[in-house]
Amino acid sequence: xxxxxxxxxxxxxxxxxxxxxxxxxxxxxxxxxxxxxxxxxxxxxxxxxxxxxxxxxxxxxxxxxxxxxxxxxxxxxxxxxxxxxxxxxxxxxxxxxxxxxxxxxxxxxxxxxxxxxxxxxxxxxxxxxxxxxxxxxxxxxxxxxxxxxxxxxxxxxxxxxxxxxxxxxxxxxxxxxxxxxxxxxxxxxxxx
Length: 192
Fold this sequence. Notes:
single chain; mainly alpha; 2% strand; disordered N terminus
C-alpha cells in the first residue's frame, strides 16, 4: 500500500534539455504547442524556451517570498504564477481579449495559447518577428511598452537571460527537426 501511494503521488521531474524527450515524457504537451503554432504562428521552440526560463516547466510556480529578517517569509514580489509566470493583470488582459474566461495559468494548453497570443501582440504592437527569440523574450519580460522604451538596457542580467532563452529556443528547434515527423504521425493516428 505504501509503495502504491508513493508511486501515485511522486512528482517525476522531466528532462527539460531536449524538446523530443519533453514530448516523449509529456505526450499532450506537443498537441498544445502545435495547436498554438497552428493558431498564432508562434514557434514551438520559443514556447518551450519561455516556459523553461520562467518556471522550469513547474505547473504551480510562484516567485520566492521575500524574507523578513532573513528568515520569516514575507510577501511575494509579484503575482506571477504558473508555467509561464504570468502576472494577474497580464493574464486578465489575455482572458478578456481572447474570451478564454476560464483559462488557468496552471494549465499547459492555456499557457501555450497565452504565449502564442502574447508573442503575436509583440509582433503587432512593436514589430518583433516571431523568429526573433531574443527580443521576443525581452518584450515578454518587460512588456511591449517596456521593450519599446528599452527598459532592459539597464538590466544586464536580463540581457543575459534573453540570450539564454534564444540559445535554448534554437536548440529546441534543432532537436524538433529530429522528432517532429514522428510526433505528427502519432497525433495523426491518435496514439498518445
